[in-house]
Amino acid sequence: MYIHPLNSWKNDPEIHDFLRKNAFATLVTQVNGRPWATHLPFVLDENSAGEAILSGHLAKANPQWKSLAGMEDVLVIFQGPHAYISSSWYNHENVPTWNYLAVHVYGKIRMIAGEELMDHLKKLVDTYEVGRPNRVRVETMTESYVQSQVRALVGFEVKIEEVQASAKLSQNRDEVNYNNIVQKLEESPFPLGKEIAEEMRKIRPQ
How is 167-179 classified by DSSP, letter by letter? Predict the structure, then answer.
């Protein structure tokens, strides 16, 4: 994706934290010569070699999986908070714009099954059950039920080869206008606007 030099995001620990917090992402591949996207939950992990990976699964009814076995490179798009920035918030004439956080992950894909797929499903459920009352675990489900569900799934793993991360947070604005944008976002009735204000305060604490 296009990233303005001012918006380039290079902090790996922050990016990994972002991937975990915004793990419902979009897997983009080619199916029959056309772009195909599926919205999926991912788990960020490491393989036995210590390399960063994303694991996920598709419904077997989704034709996208049939093209994965013969494909090496895929794109996974992670979208974070975003907010409209009104031109009325500046002390001079300017155009409106949009602030956002987004990460594109490129990697090599391989299919997983058996114990690897079960390990992915256990980690996925454990991750999203944290903090919930009456937590469930794959291990507490009946074997027959789990196997009936697994038969309808196709698992995969993406070894991360390249990360493109953009944090467009009004870095090109002077202190007066930057602070005014933060204030307006904090006053916003939209939760995503408040999240962008919080991100902006991280890079220019007041």
Answer: EES-TTS-HHHHH
Render each residue's pLDDT in the chain as its tens digit; 206 residues.
999 999 999 999 999 999 999 999 999 999 988 999 999 999 999 988 999 999 999 999 999 999 887 777 999 999 999 999 999 999 999 999 999 999 999 999 999 999 999 999 999 999 999 988 989 999 989 999 999 999 999 999 999 999 999 999 999 999 999 999 999 999 999 999 999 999 999 998 86
DSSP letter string, 95-113: --EEEEEEEEEEEEEEEE-
Listing DSSP states for 118-135 in one string gives HHHHHHHHHHHHTT-TT-
Give the up-direction half-sphere exposure of residue 29: CA atoms within 13 A in the CB hemisphere: 23
Q: What single-letter DSSP state applies at residue 63?
A: T
How many Cβ atoms sit within 10 Å of the Cβ of residue 106? 15
Helix intervals (H) in the chain = 12-21, 64-68, 114-129, 143-150, 175-186, 191-203
Q: Which of 117, 105, 121, 127 is nearest to 51 (CA)?
A: 105
Element (DSSP H or E) covering residue 154: strand 153-168
| Burial environment of residue 119 by CB neighbours within 10 A (0 to 12, 13 to 18, 19 or more) | middle
Closest CA to 56 of 74, 80, 81, 70: 74
